[in-house]
Request: fold
Amino acid sequence: MRRNKKTTKYIFVTGGVVSSIGKGLTCACIGTLLENRGLKVTLMKLDPYINVDPGTMNPFQHGEVFVLDDGAETDLDLGHYERFTTCRLRADHNITTGKIYHSVIGKERRGEYLGATVQVIPHVTNEIKEGVLRATADVDVAIIEIGGTIGDIESLPFLEAVRQLILEKGSQNAISVHVTLIPYITAAQELKTKPTQHSVQKLREIGIQPDILVCRSDRPISPEHKRKIGLFCNVPEEAVISAADVPCIYQLPVALAEQELDDRICEALNIWSRAAGLTAWRRISKMVLEPPNAVTIGVVGKYVDLRDSYLSLNEALIHGGIANGCRVAIRHVDAEDVESKGAGALLEGVDGVLVPGGFGNRGIEGKVQAITYAREQRVPLFGICLGMQLAVVEFARNVLGLAGANSSEFASPCPHPVIDLLPEQREVTDKGGTMRLGAYPCTIRPGTLAREIYRSESISERHRHRYEFNSTYAERFEDHGMVLSGTSPDGRLVEIVELVEHPWFLGCQFHPEFKSRPTDAHPLFTSFVGAALARSQGERADEPAGRAARGRRKARPDPEP
Reply:
């Protein structure tokens, strides 16, 4: 007997009043609650900007670029979706105006519209709807976030497509959740609901009546305010949810469940399911807020003025703290300040140093100085992507004695390009979507710190880079104590480097932060934070981290047979 295809129900999440209201976290929490009720969910983001993807955007403008297994460079909200749920998303889970128009114009050039005049309605809106339906097939519930703020001209085609989908799917198969702001006016000492009323009014003008309101504020919203909001926004009082600020974002699923948000959603969509079990999230919140220990990690970066630039990295450090039973205090250090003030002045007292990825030569020498400080002072050092490359540069200059050693990204020509352009990148001219992107396998040598951490010979991690370790220098590095402990399966590309005579010094070419979860911390972050905790608790600096590491460091590891 042929099985009927699953009918997907839809939750469309919009935002009003201001940007950065928390739509992404709201979607992620809804996904968490529904998953914990036994439902299969997926999430996607509709972004109104004309860029095809955020890959070429400055992190100061748009925050980090979150990379998926299939190599898609996506909005940072997809990181929230993957951290809070078990979903593994694909490129088609992030649709932009640029992607939509690229597809529509391509169809027009191929004559697929049969001579019709191509217009926003129906051609652009149909393309949006088809993209949504294609990405959300065969799940119980799809949660769709529409980027931007109600009233933005850029988001109108997406909102029109959403209006049509809600109409086509029917009231028990598609609902609208609107996230809005209830500001507190200090002078008047009261919360104001008028911005929310205007936001909902604008949404209704477009033809979308919200079924549930999630009201953001810096304090809980009283029942009286909920009644007023419900009355003026044509929403039942019990469907007005207070989303007050919380000390830890991992408290949000529990806070929203306590107001029965998931019950309201299941009622609106006519879903019968078990109650959500949130014991794990309560445990995680308690560990973040009431840990028995604490460490300080210095993150030496180029985009430290905007927290969202290193969003996944910051969260992965917190996950490593959860796994080790400690709070991670992150000290963001501007790499340019290190150049002028010195690493010692800015990193004094940290228990670990992390040098993240980035592009361009601004602040590079400051990162190199930070790596020198960590190596010489025997502070645990974790280099990610560019951080690994600069650990190689620093070692080449200061241990191998290769004067002028550098990456060809920053000095070309240079006497010792220990980091060089990937061969397949030499003829690339377009910047967007052309790097080595997505999940690639890596083989780890036995007897190394990396092998001890992963407890596996083969791993898969997500990449985003154009440059690589120059393997013509491999023998000199290994002879002086830098082990090339992880490589591509064919041995051509170096993926992980580590130092033999150091408590914890590891660099990886990939981005492990993209696969870390609060419920399942990435092993590299767990080990790194563990080494930092050992240092903070006064373990001897010459004692390697972990039992297996003690025997490992007596000799340079041999390659696998």
User: Anything to note?
Assistant: Confidence is low (pLDDT under 50) at residues 540-561. The longest strand covers residues 293-301. The two ends are 51 Å apart (CA to CA). The CA atoms of residues 3 and 138 lie 12 Å apart.
